[in-house]
Write a structure and sequence with these properties.
Ribosomal Protein L9, domain 1, 2 domains, elongated, alpha+beta, 190 residues, Ribosomal Protein L9, domain 2
Length: 190
């Protein structure tokens, strides 16, 4: 059975605590990660008092970040993200859609969602509709719908529309991200 030890965090560690907090961690985690990287040290009363102001500042930043993340999740509610990728005739992608692709598309659409917030268990390799969780921390979580479409189908529709003189229809299918709220980034792409 691993022995837990107490350490004082010298900097904030995600999913562990804020700077200035005394936390209990397993000995191997402390020995192999926290102590060698200078993220923690053994607690003393003097050092705890020194880091008190840094802790108050880190707590204020954490609260501001949480408020920002809640606002992002509020805006993401009901959004449908459409990604177009080349596929074969059976709808299998030549490649995949990963967390990075989804994060980049959301950032391009004006949502500050990092790669780690996109909780995709496996990369998407087929066309279709997918519910993808967006999660900040332990409690803030919401789903978005990601629609993966084939580029070849889009190109065929565009060719058919241009033959009929419907260039507006071809431009309409080229919009990458229909959002609940129009953003400047998505309007510049069309």
């Amino acid at each position: 059975m691993a022995k837990n030890i107490e350490l004082l965090l010298v900097e904030s560690v995600e999913n562990l605590g804020l700077v200035g907090e005394v936390v209990r961690v397993r000995a191997g985690y402390a020995r192999n990660y926290l102590l060698p990287l200078g993220m923690a040290e053994f607690p003393t009363e003097e050092r705890i008092a020194e880091l008190q102001s840094a802790r108050v500042e880190a707590a204020a930043k954490a609260d501001a970040l949480r408020d920002e993340q809640e606002a992002i999740l509020g805006k993401l509610g009901g959004i449908v993200l459409t990604l177009r990728r080349p596929t074969n005739d059976k709808g299998i992608l030549y490649g995949s859609v990963s967390q990075r692709d989804i994060s980049d598309a959301l950032i391009q659409g004006g949502f500050n969602v990092g790669i780690s917030a996109v909780r995709l268990s496996v990369a998407i390799r087929r066309t279709g509709n997918y519910d993808v969780p967006i999660q900040f921390g332990k409690e803030l979580r919401d789903n978005i719908t990601v629609v993966v479409e084939s580029e070849s189908v889009i190109e065929e529709m565009a060719d058919d529309a241009s033959e009929e003189g419907g260039d507006a229809a071809a431009q309409e299918t080229a919009v990458d991200m229909p959002a609940a709220e129009p953003t400047e980034a998505s309007s510049d792409e069309s």
